[in-house]
Design goal:
CATH topology of the largest domain: D-Maltodextrin-Binding Protein, domain 2
Shape: elongated
Strand content: 15-25%
Number of domains: 3
Largest sheet: 11 strands, mixed
């Protein structure tokens, strides 16, 4: 605002000099200066009024939102959904966001039955789900990382090698340049969005030979970290130093590589609704508006994901 005022006063000053030179009259100069000052004050006042009105409108919209939003679904989306819920409730104190993490399939079922406002799924929706009026709202892109126990000497797997491990063709790390020990194949339970996406991307639907099928991303991380010779797959945003992350086709699972298309294991994070967003209640609409805002996109990035738009 100060910059605008300076520009206006400068323009008024130029007008004073010009008119003074033309008229050669001290009274004209004084009158012009007064007029310029008055114009600047009027503009500054208008700007203040407009800014105040905008702030009042925003505050009213925030105050008007009351009630709750229920989300049910993917355990892989827990980190993102939790961060989103906390920030949104801080922004809209009158709204409570409740999130439950029980798997993608259960989330889609909940929103279909009207038991939840949003069904979180870490995979694309199936045709039969869409046929029931469920809309696929992609809010972020996630990578699926392949992890092994920290003592494993293998650094990289090709796509074919990964497929051979999970379909049971390759059973020893020795065949992959590692130690002479059995491969313990760990995966998610049936109905998991991570499992569905992983198997679909590798064309391994109903073909995987699992040693253990676990019911959450955290359980997979803990099992791989504590089991020699193990291998598993998890959401990119949960990676930590308790496990070793393998390269695939000599490519690390990073947001940059996923966005560039050089890392082949990636999938969408979907916040499904019954009907499109325009048909949802005001609280849900505001949540999606936030996700699509610049601030929302930064939140997506902060938890290791890629904004969908």
């Amino acid at each position: 605002m100060k910059k605008n005022l300076i520009k206006i006063l400068a323009a008024a000053g130029m007008a004073v000099l010009t008119m003074g030179a033309l008229a050669g009259c001290g009274n004209s100069t004084a009158e012009t200066t007064a007029a310029g000052t008055k114009a600047a004050e009027t503009t500054a006042g208008t700007t203040k009024t407009t800014t105040a009105a905008a702030a009042t409108t925003t505050a009213k919209a925030t105050a008007d939102l009351k009630g709750s939003i229920s989300m049910v679904g993917s355990t892989s989306m827990e980190k993102f959904a939790t961060a989103l819920s906390e920030v949104f409730m801080e922004k809209y104190p009158g709204v409570t966001v409740q999130a439950e993490f029980v798997g993608s399939g259960a989330g889609i079922e909940a929103v279909t039955n009207g038991a939840a406002d949003i069904g979180n799924a870490s995979r694309n929706l199936k045709d039969e789900e869409k046929s029931k009026g469920i809309v696929e709202n992609i809010v972020a892109i996630d990578g699926i990382a392949v992890v092994t126990d920290p003592s494993n000497k293998v650094e990289n797997l090709t796509k074919d090698q990964l497929i051979a491990i999970y379909n049971g063709t390759t059973t020893s790390w020795k065949d992959l340049g590692g130690a002479d020990q059995p491969i313990v194949v760990i995966g998610r339970e049936s109905g998991s969005g991570t499992r569905s996406a992983f198997e679909e991307l590798l064309k391994l639907e109903d073909k995987c030979k699992y040693s253990n099928e676990l019911d959450s991303t955290g359980a997979v991380m803990a099992k791989v970290a504590s089991t020699p010779g193990s291998i598993g797959y998890v959401s990119l945003d949960v990676l930590d130093k308790t496990v070793k992350t393998l390269k695939l086709e000599n490519t690390d699972p990073t947001p940059e590589n996923i966005k560039a298309g050089s890392y082949f294991l990636s999938r969408p994070f979907v916040m499904a609704t019954k009907g499109d967003i325009s048909k949802q209640n005001d609280n849900v609409k505001a949540l999606f508006d936030y996700i699509h805002s610049d601030e929302g996109k930064e939140l997506v990035k902060s938890v290791g994901l890629i904004p969908a738009n």
